[in-house]
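@channel anyone free to eyeball this complex?
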Amino acid sequence: MIPVQFGYRRASSVDEALALLAEHGDDAKLLAGGHSLLPLMKLRLAAPEVLVDIAPVEELHHVRIDGEDVVIGALARYHDLQGDEVLREHAPLLAHVAGVVGDQQVRHRGTIGGSIAHADPAADLPAAILASDAVLVARGQEGERRIPAADFFLGPFTTSLTPEELLTEIRVPRQTGLGWGFEKFTRRAIDWAIVGVAVSGKRVGLINMGGTPVRASAAEEALARGASVAEAAELAAEGTSPPDEPHATTEYRRHLARVLTARALETSAGSR
Amino acid sequence: MKVTIEVNGGPVSAEVEDRTLLVHYIRETAGLTATNVGCDTTSCGACTVLLDGESVKSCTVLAAQADGHAVTTVEGLTGQDGELHPVQRAFREQHGLQCGFCTPGMIMATVSLLEHNPKPTRAEVREGLEGNLCRCTGYHNIVSAVVDASGQEVAR
Amino acid sequence: MSISGTRVLRVEDHQLITTGGTYVEDLREDALTGAVHAMFLRSPIAHARITSVDVSEALTAPGVVAVYTAADIDLAAGSAGPVGQPWLADGVVRYVGEPVALVLAEHPYQLADAAELIDIDYEPLTAVASIDAALAGETLLFPDTGSNVMQARGEFDETAFDGCEVVLTRTIVNQRVAPAPLEVRGAACAWDANGRLTIWLSTQNAQIARTIVAGGLGVGEDSVRVVTPDVGGGFGAKIGADPEAVVLGWAARRVERPVRWTETRSENLTSMTHGRAQQNTVTIGGRRDGTVQAFRLDVVQDAGAYPRAMFLPTLTELMASGVYHFPKVEAASRAVVTNTTPIAPYRGAGRPEATAAIERAMDLFAAEIGMDPAEVRRVNFVRPEEFPYETPTGAVYDTGEYAGALERVLEAGGYQELRAEQARRREGGDPVALGLGIATYVEITGGDAGGESGRVDINPDGSVTAYTGSSPHGQGLDTSLAMLLSDRLGIPMDRITVRHGDTDEVPKGIGTFGSRSLQLGGSAVRQAADQVIDRARELVADLLEAAPQDLELNVEHGAWQVRGAPSSGSVTWAQLAGQAGAGTLSADVWFGDGAPTFPFGAHLAVVEVDTLTGKVELRRLIAADDAGPVVNPLAFRGQRHGGLGQGAAQALLEVMSYDPDGNPTTATLADYSFVTATELPDFELVDMETPTTRNLLGVKGIGEAATIGSTPAVHNAVVDAVAHLGVSHLDMPTTPLRVWQALAEARKAN
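replying in thread with the prediction:
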C-alpha cells in the first residue's frame, strides 16, 4: 500500500522544524525514523498533508551526562542506544529496552523520541521511560518546557505535546547502580508486547495495561513498605484497565502483569 | 522532488513524488529488481537493503529520506569479477534459499547482522533475523548459512 | 559414479542470490511496454447486498484509465455454476476480500487513490462466520440451493463400537490458516496483434492456468499462452488461476493495452485462498491392552464462501486411519459454505487434517488407558509384511515401515531419558513443564494420478535440453532432473538445461503440487531419456557397424562404444547429435501410469510450557521422513525443514481468525502470526529410504510430508506437557492464552 499524497519538508535544525510546524499547524506531522508513522500512512490509517523530516537535525542525536541526569537526544536511534556506553552504565534499563524494540532493521531507523511521542500503549520505551522517572523536554515557539513522564502520556497515541511542539530531549535521573529488570511477553519475539514490565530500582512501569503506559503504584507502595517481591507483584495489576482482545483478555493481562512483575523484580534484585 | 541516492556505488537521480518509497525508487528508478516487497506492514523484511551500511526495510523509508545517502542492494554485493560475497556463497552452499523471494532481503539483513556480531551463535542468528520472514526453509539452513558466512563451522 | 544420492548445490541459486529471481513484478518484457496497472477493490463486508455502485468520481481521478464492475464484464459465468464465484461480485458479496471492482491506472500509486473514490452502498446481511453457523442454516449463502451444505458423503454404522472396552469421542478443530507465500499473487498480460493472449502468472501450473484462462475468456486454448516466471512460493494456493487472472485478461482486451497486477499482502491474506479449516469429530474404541478396534472420522469442511476444492474432505476421509491396521474404520464428510475466504489446497491438502485427527485420537486413547503413546502406536501399526495394504476407506498403501520410523526417532531423540526428565519435573513441581509429542503418519503423493510430460532433446552440440510439465518454484527440481539425466546419459550437469512453465515450450503438463513432481515429472524425463538412448543405439549401430545389442553407453565419458571392445571406436553424444541432425535425438513422453505413492514417517516434538503464563516453546523436533531413494539430499532435507517449520507453525501460532460478523482479524502480517526464526529450533533429521514400486525411480514425494507429521507431533507435545495438570485436549494454535485458560479450567475442575 502507498500513503495518500503529502508534501515532504526537511528541517535541519530545531528552529527550522518549529517554523515548519507553525506554518502547517495540524496538517503537519514530524517524521523522525518513520517506523511508527509510515506504516500507519501506508495502510491509510493516517494521512498528514505535510511531513516534516527532522532526521537531519544534528543537535538531537546525543547521549550525555548533565549533572545528575543522563540526557538523550530525541533522535537517538534504538540501535545507537542499545550499545551506548554512557547509557549502559547510567540507565541500563533504557539501553536494554532499546535493544529489544522491533527488529534489527527497525532499530536502525526508529528513534526514542519518535516512540515516546507516538505514545502507543503497547510500545516498550514509554513504560521504561516512566519507570526511569524521566523528564521530557519539549520546545515550542514560546520556548522550552519540561514535562515529567507521568504527565506526558494522556491516552492511546495522545500526549501533552501541542501540535507546534517538538520533543527534543529525554532527561533520565542517573540510575547508576540501581537494580533493573525487563519482561516482555509476546507470542513471537517480533510481536508487540501483550504485557510488559519495566523495573528500575523501586519503580515499576507497565506496558499495555491501559490506554497509556502506567506505573504499578500499588506494587511500588508495597515495595516501599518493605513487602516481598511476591507480595508486591500480587498488586501489580491494581488500578489498571488493560484492553480485552481475542488473543489476550483483560483477566489474562492482569495475571501476566503479576507474573511478569515478580520476574522483573527478581531480575532487578539480582542485577544490583 | 528531486532525489539523488548513491545506489551500489553510483549516483541515481530522479524527480519523484514525495511519497515514493525507497523500495520503489530502487526497483523502478534504479531498475534493480532483486529487492522485493512482501508485505505492507514492515513485517517481512523482503525489502531489506543497506542504508549507509545498515540494514533497513526499504518499504518503510521514503526515497526522500534517503536523498543524499548510500544504498546497497544484493546486486551490489557481487564483486566486479563476479565473485560472490561470503554471505551469498554461504546461502548457496548451505541451501539457505528455496523460492528465492525472501533471499535478497535475508542476505542483506545477514550482512548487517554480521557487521554488528561477527561470530554469532545459532540462537543469536535467529534473534538477529527475527525481522525477516521465510515461508520455504523453516529457517534451519538460513541459520546455517549465516554461521557459515561468519567463518564458523556448521554441524551437519 | 552416480550423482544421484549425493549432495549437489542447486543450479537455480546463482541468479537468486546475485540479481534476484525474475518474478512477475520484475518482468521488463517488450510486450509489457505501456502497461496499465490494475487493482481490485474488494468487499469490506462479509455478507451484503450491493445496492448501488458509482464509479464516476473514480474515473476522473489522476491517471485512471478505466473502472469496471460486474455490470461491465461480458464473460460467461465460471464453470462452478450457481455457487461459483462471479468474476466480480454481482449483487451480493460473500466474504471480506471478494473482488468488487477493477481499477486501471497509468501508475500503481494512483490505484489506491482512485479506489477510495468508488462509491458502493452495501446493505448488510447476516454473516455466516463459522461452521456452526453454517450448519445451523438460519442464513443461507445461496438461498436457491436450500442449504449451506454443499457436499455430504458417507454414513455411519451404529454398531461400529459394540464390544469396545473404551470408547472416546472428541471434536478437534483443524484451524484455518493462510498459505502466505512470500511472493503474493501477480500477473501481467498482453494481447498480440493476432488476438492471442500471453499471460505471465505466478502459478504452480501453467498448463492448467491456460485451460482456466482460456475457458473464462471464451477463447480456444491455442489463443492463450501462459508463462510462469520465477514463482515465490505457492504451497497449493497458486494451483491453476484465480478469477482475477481471467478478469485481467478480459480487461487487457477491453482497454487494448497490457495490464499488470500485484496484490498487496493485506489483500493476499483475505483474498488468496486459505487452507485446512476443518472441524473433525473422532470416535475411537478399543481394548485396554492398547488394541484399537474401531475408528470413526466425521469431517466438516469449511469451504469458505465459494466451494472450489471439494476433494479436500474426500482426501481426509481416504486417509482416516493413518498408519494403523484397525478392523473397523468409517469416515464421512460434509462441506459447508461460510462468509469467509474460499478454502483450497494448502501444503498437505486434506491429508494433514486426517493425520491430525487420528494422531490426536491415538493420544487421547493412550491417555485414557494409561499407556505410553508410543506403545499404543506399536500395537496398532500396519506391519511391513502387510504391504500393499488396502485400508477400509480404500487407500492402497504401497510400501512402509511405520514401526521402524517410530523407533528411529525415539532412539534419536532419547525418548526414555526425556520421559524421565519429564517425571522429575512433575515430581519437583517445576513450573516449566516438559511435553513430548509423537506423530506417525502416512500420506499420498501424486494422488491425482494424472501423469506428467517429459521431453529430452540432445542438441547438435551434445548438450541437453529437457522440458517438464512440472512447475517447480523453490523445490530445486531443475537440479534434481539434471542429476537424473546426467546419470542416465553420461552428460555433465552443466550441459543440461531444464525448462518448464511456458505453455508454448511445454504444451502439455500438470504442474507442481501434491508432492508429485519428482515421482511423475522425474519419471517422465527419465522415460524420455531412455527413449533417446534407444534411438541413439540404432544410430550408433549404423555408425560403428555393430549390432545394437552389442553397444553400450559409457556414462563415465558420455560416449557409445562396443561392449568389451572400447578400442573399436566410440561415438560421443556431440558427434552423434551433430550427424543425426536437430530433432532426431529427441523424445517426448507422457508418464501416465504413475499410481499414487505413500510416503510415511514419524516425528517427535519436545516442548516446554511455562505453566504460569501458558507460553509454549518448541525445543526440539526430530523427524524421520521416508520418501524412498533420495536424488538430492540437499533439496530433500530442505523440503523437510520447510515442512517441519510450517507444520509446527500451525500447531503453535498460525490461525486466520474472523469475528462473529465475518471480519478477518488477522489480515496483515503484523496480525497474522507467521512463524519466524526465533520460534523454531534446529531440526534433527533421521534418514530412511523405503522405495516404492509404483514409478521408474522408486521415489515418493517429499514436499508435504514433514508438514503433515509435525503439526500433530507438536500439538500432542503441548497437551502432553500439561496432561498431569488435568488438561486432556487443547485446540490449535496452542496460544499462551488458550493454554493458560485450559490450565485454569483444569484447576477449577479439580
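from a first look: The domain at 86-149 of chain B is CATH 1.10.150.120 (DNA polymerase; domain 1).
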